[in-house]
Amino acid sequence: MAKKRKEIQDVANQISRRMLFVGGLQISFGLILVGRLYQLQILHSDAYLKLSDQNQFDHRLVIAPRGRIFDSKNRLLAGNAEVFELVVIPARVKNLEKLLANIDRIIGLSDEAASEIIDTASKQPNFLEISIKSDLTQRELSKLAIRSAILEGVLFQKNFNRIYPQGKLLSHVTGYVSGVTAQEVEKNQTLRRLVGLKTGKSGLEKTLENSLRGNFGKERIEVNSKGKPVRFISDNLPQRGEDHQLTIDIDVQSYAVNRLKQGNSEVVELATSAVQEAITRNDELQAHINIGETMILKDAKSRYVPPESGAVVLMEIKTGAVIAMASLPSYDPNLFVGRLSNRTWQNINQHPRVPLMNRVVSGLYSPGSTFKMVVYAAALEAGIVSADTTYFCKGFFEFGDRNFYCWQEKGHGRVDGRQAIAQSCDVYFYQIALKTGIDRIQNMANRMGLGVITDVGIPEEKLGIIPNRAWKQTNRGSIWTPGETVIAGIGQGFVLTTPIQLAVMAARIANGKKAITPKLLSKEVENTDDFAPLEINEYVLREIQRSMRSVISDSRGTARNYDIDGYKMAGKTGTVQVKKITKAEREAGVIDNIDRRWKDRDHALFVAYAPYDKPKYAISIIVEHGGSGSSMAAPIARDILKFALERQST
Amino acid sequence: MSWTSRLLAVPWGMVCAILFLVLIGCLALYSASDGVWTASVQQHLMRSGLGFLIAIFIAFLPINFLFRISFFVWLCFVAILMAMPFIGVGAGATRWIDLGFMNFQPSEPAKIAVIVLLARYLSQRSFDQIYKLIFHVPALLIIAITASLIFVQPDLGTGLMLIVGGLAVIFVSGLPKRYVCMGIGLLAAAIPIIWSQLYDYQKARLLTFLNPESDVLGAGWQITQSKIALGSGGMFGKGFLQGSQSQLDYLPEKKTDFVFTLIGEEFGFVGNVSIILIYFLIIFSITGVGLKAKNRFTQLVSSGLAMTIFLYMFVNIAMVTGVLPVVGAPLPLLSYGGTALLTMFVILGITINMSQNSHKEDLEVS
């Protein structure tokens, strides 16, 4: 027994001994590591520090000139101006604040900019360059150059500034560039070393970023002991970004923008005391002047008002080429390139009419009566009605315990489909929508391009809503009611579309064969065979086309006054209620649009194509709170189509 | 045991050291993300939190239970490792299982399973058996089976660490000296055979290690840049967020395998040696639990666990300082990466558990 106990003790002792032995081994190996670190970090530290400095300063990346953007006739829309940039490397500066004060004395530097530079310097490693001023004039450059002795740690760099010669005219299509953001750096660390690099933040500048940016170059710099560069050696030349040509015709774009802005009002001279006084008294006018607007209007009641807001898209029916695309109000993309002051940013960002929003692709509007083509086509296709089927309109449609009113209080009497489109009879569409059913209407709308992303190339594009029963169940959690089909029959209720989708609808109706989609890049319109076939019966389309023609040609058509001289136009008006008319208001008599507050007025819509016999262009227009589709939107569309057609024939 | 002596037995030094390293890891990640609180910092904290829960759970299990399930757990890991070619992900190497929120590397916890199973087997051997080589053969087989499954993934580093950790347990258990010497001799003789079995990229890495300048842009470049970063850090470092090598992306893998280098560049020799000391605090806490214990199972498990952590630290630091070839080994708690981190917390849980049961003498009988 005693022997056994001794044996246990022996083994226990041996285990403890071996554990201590292993521990000793571990300490020895640990000391090897410490020795190695001592060797690297203490003994040879200087040599490694030098190598690390070389890593910092030896190689530098050179920004490539950004690709340019041209219109269809090779006029410059976005280009580069060579500028000299003043940069500072905080690591080489003893007192950054004093240096900035010196620079302020020589060329002027706002306090805002100076504190921003100091802030940036405190947030990032001190060996990274920071831009002080990005577009030095020749005068500033020479002033700085002769005083370079007192400006240690600053460098002059040749750089490129983005310029948009067309200013506000095309800002929503081109978008704009501005400095690299923290999120972009997180995705691509290299960007941080490209001081002064600007990247696309919206529009095509953003979509085409990779192609426009090109490839940065690499150069080596020999630095003397005081940190001044003495020699530049180019290892890799920067490769300039790819140029792009757009389908936009800047002349048509310009005409369309100005025509839409003017609406039905009279343009007044800005430099009169009456107008200037109106601007100081009226916040809304002031807000427009603050974002660089130069057009002020006098409306039918002789009030000074800002230009109209809204959107217009003009596209070629055969190719989908977008000739003009504008969203109003607009902003000047050049403002974003340099240092954007707080005040300028607030003027743009807090503007009551949201100039940064691209209404063409992200403005969601009820299509109103322009949706009636979809409903009619769906009913024809399903055999619910034929061209001869008539309904009686007595001014309202009783359904359930509710009355659905026609815009025409007296009623339209007995109308067939074509007359119902021409006169925009609501009662006819309430009834055929109910019989056709929302699922068939939704299916037809999608085929015409509504509720479908067009992928025209603008990143901010929205989908809109073309509802059906399944949509309501998933998104609203309740079942679809027939009353909702009735109201969808005139393009209201849940239905929401974008102006570009409405233009696509007009183009597809006019084209008749292909499911046209809009294109902004010239190289994309070279091959028109890529479009999918438009799967809508030819007989149905013929009837829709004839109906749209009647809107203009019929003596009672809602756009009867607006045919284009020498060309025939086909179209459809839409007037979308923004504010619900209460029962009391209906009985008291509805107030005229022009007497309501701007915000409460109806949206005016018009979709059209021309010439009717040989379709060339399709257009969609929305004038926000512009009144009625027939009096406001139709004449604008007529004028723009006429301008484009006459220009193309000469 | 009274409630207070139980509490006193917990290796608090180890707990604090682990917490401290997790925090340093977060700061290093913050620096590696250019001074931005990115999702990876949050992830690191969340995984550590999960790790603590796992550690607490393991700490409260009856130690007899750990003892009894060790064979079953090892079998499970063998099954998972065998299934890796079918369920694993990864380019060229199937080391990971995609769990959705993280990539799980089963070979890491497999090391722990092997150690616990070896300890169970060896602690059950009588004192006569311990001195006979034949009774060590099953233990060697356990190591060989597991390691070969890891080698074929292929993951040379983890496999070798498993072998060394397992052999440490056998050595501590009392294998006679003459067999130890024989083993070392055999290993030396086997090196040419092992070399012939290596994959080309593994050979390339070893050759690069011997002569870094031969591959200036590949693995040699990594080591060169890592040495520049460490060396330029000097005694006290360049300062937090001021490491030009790391911030300018000269340093590869700075969030994962080369995090020690990032710390070295920004906090210098002082920072690096402190990190090593903290790891040794953890290693010796575990060894201490073993030395106090009255049963062989605890003694053997703690030796194996201490060796596992030592190997993690040694291999990683030796790799980034150019003492060992680049094998792709993380520095647990500091490196961004899930499995090694969670493995550390499993080790913590087992250690706390053992510290509460060190007075028990006859674990194997119950």
For the largest beta-sheet of chain A, the strand count, sense and barrel status come to: 5 strands, mixed
Strands of chain B, total number:
2
Number of helices of chain B: 15
The overall pLDDT average of chain A reads 89
Instruction: Output the number of helix runs of chain A.
Output: 24
Strand neighbour order, sheet with most strands of chain B: 1-2
User: Poorly predicted ranges of chain B (pLDDT <50, ≥5 residues)?
Assistant: none
Task: Let me know the CATH homologous superfamily of the largest domain in chain A.
Answer: DD-peptidase/beta-lactamase superfamily
Order of helices and strands of chain B: HHHHEEHHHHHHHHHHH
CATH architecture of the largest domain in chain A: 3-Layer(aba) Sandwich
The chain pair forming the largest interface, with residue counts per chain, is:
A-B, 49 and 57 residues
Class by SSE composition of chain B: mainly alpha
The N- and C-terminal alpha carbons of chain B lie at a distance of 18 Å
Structural class of chain A: alpha+beta
* Averaged pLDDT of chain B: 86
Question: What number of structural domains do the residues of chain A give?
Answer: 3
General description of the model:
The complex is a heterodimer of chains A (650) and B (366). With 650 residues, chain A is α+β, with helices and mostly antiparallel strands. Chain A is built from 24 helices and 22 strands. In chain A, strands 2, 3, 4, 5 and 10 form a 5-stranded mixed beta sheet that branches. In chain A, strands 15-14-22-21-20 form a 5-stranded antiparallel beta sheet. In chain A, helix 15 crosses helix 17 and helix 16 (417-423) packs across helix 22. The longest helix of chain A has 42 residues, at 2-43. With 366 residues, chain B is mainly α. Chain B has one domain. The two termini of chain B are 18 Å apart. The mean pLDDT of chain B is 86.
